[in-house]
Each structure stands twice: as C-alpha cells, then as structure tokens.
C-alpha cells in the first residue's frame, strides 16, 4: 500500500513550547569525583546493605507494587512528625510532584510563580504543562525581594508558587516571616520545597495546619536515596485526595518501596550522615574562603555556591583534574561566574580544594 500522507516530523507535530525546550542535561561522570548533583557521598553501613540485598532477593518483582504504598507512607509519616489531619502523596522523585501539581492547576493562562535564580525545573515544568511562568528576581545577596514578590503575586495571581527552602542553587534559607507573608498573600497554592531539609535548621511542616493553601514538598534524594527516586508532598487531605487522581498508580516501584521503608527504620543513620555533611560543609566553606578570588556564599544545604573569575575555564580545569561540579555561568544573569559544589566526603572535598587552587594558580 503506498502512503499518501506527507512526512510526519516532530517540528510539525509537537507543541512549539516543547520544541523550544532544552532537555535537562546530565553530564556523564564516569570515574570522576562527583560533586555536581547534591547526592549523599556516603554508602550505607555493610550490615544495612546486606539487609537490603536480602530484601531485594525476596522481592516479588513479578507483581505490581502496592499502588497506595501503605507501608512506605506509614514509615514516612512516622519520621516526618506529621500533625493530625495531614497526609502525604508520593512521587517518583519530587520532580514528578512538581509536574503533577502543575498539571492539576494548568487551566488556560494559569501562572506558576517562583523566584530567580532557583530550581530550573519549576520553569521547565510550567512550560511543558502549558502554564505561564513568572520568575521574580532575588536580591543581590539572594534573599527574597518581599515587596517585588508580593507585587508580582498581586499582578499575576499565580495558581501555584514554588519556594525552595533552602534555595537551589544559592543554598540560603529565605526569611521565614517573608515566606509566611507570601503564603498569606497568594491567591493559590504555595509549595515550600524542602528538598534540602536534612541540612537546614527550619521547616514549614509544623505550619501546615496554619494555612489552607500551603503544601510542603520533600525528597529523599539528598538523604542517601537519590537512586531510589522518592519524594513526597505533605498537606491536608482535602488537597491531597484531589491530587491523588493525577498520580499514576504505580509511580513508586516495588524495590523503592521495599528499600526506602527499610532505610527509614534506620533514619538515624541517614540523619547522622547529614550531620557529618553539615560539619564538612563548614570546613569546605572555610577552605573556599581562604582561596583568594573566590567568593563563597553561606549554605543551609549540602552544596555551596561560589563566584570566581573565569568560572567556565575553572570548571573545565576541574573536570580535567577529575572533579565534576556544576557550572552555572552562562545561565541566569545573577549567576555569572558562579559554580556550585556538592559537599562530598572529607577526602573528596580535599581533592576538590586542591584541584581548585591548582586551576586558579594556572589561570593566574
Ligand atoms: N527541588 C529542589 C529544590 C531540588 O534542588 C531538586 C533536585 N535537584 C528537586 C526538587 C528534585 O529532586 P528529586 O526529583 O530527586 O526528588
């Protein structure tokens, strides 16, 4: 049968906003000291790894997972100290939850508002779910510009506001009173994204009952489970029961459910690792401060943003020396000459600092 239709191409078929997007780029890191993605650098203790091996060996991977993930949800609620009346929704990473929230509110013309610079997926997901994205600039020291944010909220009437607390890639915790004013002023949902909660000293989980439009999102990716892909959204049952309709029934697989449930029984081990990372963060910040020409920003997360002349060449020089960090130069204008390094093990941090000093000396 001869075909009469003309050639089907992506350019003809796909939405223009999808064609205009660039895929989220994840560079290969084989053999490198990997300090680019805010992972926990520590492996689990051997006894726990053996326990997981046994669990996985017996897992019924021929069956679909528990669609409601009852055991895992109970384990998460327990370690999160959720208040009565609050519930959680699970995501295949918190990225998936951002997408689910955007899908839920994306009426024609609906706005997703965040601050800039912040987590790039807010803008990207707004774009591919057909929402209009509005980014309010942070101040020069990366604090919230409260008045500008309140003005933008009044003007744009966003259906959804995302605030990363602490913020990525800047690492700072915003002023909590300012965040509360934003929640109060917002006509729609405000999602406080606590991806880095384990390294920070504050949380909005206890404030959930105070606001009818507040949801708190967290991920276990930075707490040693990035490979499992598991995030959650906490809030009132009124919101979550609606959002559940958009969650694909088996979005968290058998193995992530089993392994995360078991790991959360050892939450103390993971939190102890986070405490070690916080200590290392202080050392890394002090070491960066000692390098002339480097301006490092204080961080409440497991990474540090720093500014240095010739950032892209320094990034490349580090890569040649086997250290992969994140180059933010050339992206957002507020991040010109900025690089971001994840806090690694003491040995990794030392190698990073030595390599950085070496590259800077060579470029001088
Ligand atoms: N929110 C913020 C602020 C992040 O930095 C990240 C990861 N970089 C995420 C959400 C997504 O994390 P995940 O999908 O691994 O849960």
Which features would summarize this protein structure in a list?
364 residues, Aspartate Aminotransferase, domain 2, seven-stranded mixed beta sheet, 13 helices, four-stranded antiparallel beta sheet, 13 strands, 2 domains, 16% strand, binds 4'-deoxy-4'-aminopyridoxal-5'-phosphate
Topology:
Layout (H helix, E strand, L loop, with lengths): L9 H4 L2 H5 L12 E2 L11 H13 L11 H11 L5 E6 L2 H12 L5 E6 L3 H9 L3 E6 L8 H11 L3 E5 L11 H10 L3 E5 L20 E6 L11 E6 H7 L10 H12 L1 H24 L3 E3 L6 E6 L2 H10 L2 E2 L1 E2 L10 E5 L3 H18 L1
Parallel strand pairs: 1-11, 3-4, 3-5, 5-6, 6-7
Antiparallel strand pairs: 2-8, 7-8, 9-10, 10-13, 12-13
Helix pairs in contact: 3-10, 4-10, 5-6, 7-8, 11-13, 12-13
This protein binds 4'-deoxy-4'-aminopyridoxal-5'-phosphate.
4'-deoxy-4'-aminopyridoxal-5'-phosphate binds next to helix 5.
General description of the model:
It is a single chain. With 364 residues, the chain is an alpha/beta fold. The chain has 2 domains: 10-44 and 269-363, Aspartate Aminotransferase, domain 1 (Alpha-Beta Complex), CATH 3.90.1150.10; 59-266, Type I PLP-dependent aspartate aminotransferase-like (Major domain) (Aspartate Aminotransferase, domain 2, 3-Layer(aba) Sandwich). The chain is built from 13 helices and 13 strands. The chain has helices at 10-13, 16-20, 46-58, 70-80, 94-105, 120-128, 146-156, 176-185, 237-243, 254-265, 267-290, 311-320, 346-363, and strands spanning 33-34, 86-91, 111-116, 132-137, 160-164, 189-193, 214-219, 231-236, 294-296, 303-308, 323-324, 326-327, 338-342. The strands form 3 sheets. Strands 2-8-7-6-5-3-4 form a 7-stranded mixed β-sheet, sandwiched between helices. A hairpin with a 6-residue loop joins strand 9 and strand 10. Helix 3 packs antiparallel against helix 10, helix 5 (94-105) crosses helix 6 (120-128) and helix 12 packs across helix 13 (346-363). The protein is globular, with a radius of gyration of 22 Å. 40% of the residues are buried. Bound molecules: 4'-deoxy-4'-aminopyridoxal-5'-phosphate. 4'-deoxy-4'-aminopyridoxal-5'-phosphate is lined by residues 38, 93-95, 119, 164, 168, 193, 195, 219, 221, 226, 231. Residues 38, 93-95, 119, 164, 168, 193, 195, 219, 221, 226, 231 line the site of 4'-deoxy-4'-aminopyridoxal-5'-phosphate.
């Amino acid at each position: 049968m001869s075909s009469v239709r003309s050639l089907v191409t992506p350019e003809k078929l796909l939405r223009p906003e999808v064609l205009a997007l660039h895929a989220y780029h994840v560079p290969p890191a084989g053999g490198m000291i990997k300090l680019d993605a805010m992972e926990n650098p520590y492996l689990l203790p051997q006894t726990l790894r053996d326990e997981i091996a046994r669990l996985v060996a017996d897992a019924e991977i021929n069956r679909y997972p528990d669609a409601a993930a009852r055991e895992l949800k109970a384990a998460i609620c327990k370690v999160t100290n959720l208040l009565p009346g609050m519930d959680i929704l699970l995501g295949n990473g918190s990225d998936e939850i951002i997408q689910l929230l955007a899908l839920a509110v994306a009426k024609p013309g609906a706005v997703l508002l965040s601050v800039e610079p912040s987590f790039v997926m807010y803008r990207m997901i707004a774009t591919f779910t057909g929402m209009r994205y509005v980014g309010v600039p942070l101040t020069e020291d990366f604090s919230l510009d409260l008045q500008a944010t309140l003005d933008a909220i009044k003007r744009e009437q966003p259906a959804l506001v995302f605030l990363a607390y602490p913020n990525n890639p800047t690492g700072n915790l915003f002023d909590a009173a300012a965040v509360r004013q934003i929640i109060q002023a917002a006509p729609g949902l405000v999602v406080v994204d606590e991806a880095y909660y384990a390294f920070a000293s504050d949380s909005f989980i206890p404030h959930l009952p105070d606001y009818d439009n507040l949801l708190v999102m967290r991920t276990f990716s930075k707490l040693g489970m990035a490979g499992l892909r598991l995030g959650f959204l906490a809030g009132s049952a009124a919101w979550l029961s609606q959002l559940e309709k958009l969650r694909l029934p088996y979005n968290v697989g058998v193995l992530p459910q089993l392994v995360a449930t078991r790991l959360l029984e050892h939450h103390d081990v993971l939190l102890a690792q986070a405490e070690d990372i916080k200590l290392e963060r202080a050392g890394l910040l002090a070491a960066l401060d000692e390098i002339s020409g480097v301006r490092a920003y204080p961080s409440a997360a497991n990474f540090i943003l720093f500014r240095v002349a010739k950032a892209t060449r320094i990034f490349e020089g580090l890569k040649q020396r086997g250290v992969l960090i994140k180059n933010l130069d050339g992206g957002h204008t507020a991040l010109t000459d900025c690089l971001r390094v994840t806090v690694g093990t003491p040995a990794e941090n030392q190698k990073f600092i030595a390599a950085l000093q070496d590259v800077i000396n060579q470029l001088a």
